[in-house]
Amino acid sequence: MNTNQRARHLRLPEATAEDEAGAADRQFVAALGRGLDILRCFDEGDAELGNQDFVQRTGLPKATVSRLTYTLARLGFLTYVERSGRYTIGAGVVALARTMLNNLDIRQLARPQMLELAERFGAVCCMAARDRNHIVFIEMARSSSAITLSTDVGSRVPIESTALGRAYLAVIPADERTALLADLKQARGKDWPAAKAAIAQGQEQFRRQGFVVSLQSWQRDVNAVAVPLVMPNGSGIYSFMCGGPSFLIKQAALENEIGPALRQMVYRLEVGIGGRRGVHRLRD
What we know:
The longest helix has 22 residues, at 251-272. Helix content is 49%, strand content 18%. Helix 7 (105-121) packs antiparallel against helix 11 and helix 8 (163-171) packs across helix 10. The chain has helices at residues 3-11, 17-22, 30-40, 51-58, 62-74, 91-102, 105-121, 163-171, 174-188, 192-209, 251-272, and strands at 78-81, 86-89, 124-131, 134-142, 156-158, 212-215, 222-230, 237-245. The radius of gyration is 20 Å and the shape is globular. A 6-stranded antiparallel sheet has the order 5-4-3-8-7-6. The protein has a two-stranded antiparallel sheet with strand order 1-2. The chain is an alpha+beta fold.
């Protein structure tokens, strides 16, 4: 992904601090929002970023960016590298991320079942959550024979490009989906018609089968299937995916074996955390 593409994915369609302030949300602290926008600029492969990178990726004025990076560095969320005059992610961010993951009970409950499914199909099983207009991986389980995919915990991908994201979009409330789709349309430009069609196909697949199949759309050589889990306590929505290289995992296996098995795994998780019936009832 080149610099312009990355900037487009980072800046839009999520509501920025300026957007929220412009919407007269009196509860929204714009300065805090801008600071978090700075931290979100870091993507895979971004070991260091400079103030000009932040300006390009957020659209914020250079003077504002300078104050924000200085403050974030003072608080330990960024680390200033004198040799290059740029910044890296600080230990404060790492500590927060680790605390979040360690306290996520559903992740602890899901991992053994994810490993079992991965071993059964010689695949990779992932758990993810939405991060604005992206999906972020929060757990990975690989079989002993699986070919490693180029992703890991913490990786982010555009929400519409994966089975994980399309599964999420299939179950969010209609008003949230409408707003998110409008944002994605603005952000994706000429790529939107294809993305919109893939999202609609995912919704129809989930309605008919209880899972969403993705064939070489996330990565060119990866096939996968995903199922969403709506937390019974209202704490969020997670997506679970199982897949692998397209030359090993074919569409028929995804639809006839892996998809139904993943759907049942998510159903068991739902029951285990107190769900009564939900959208993942076992099907005939």
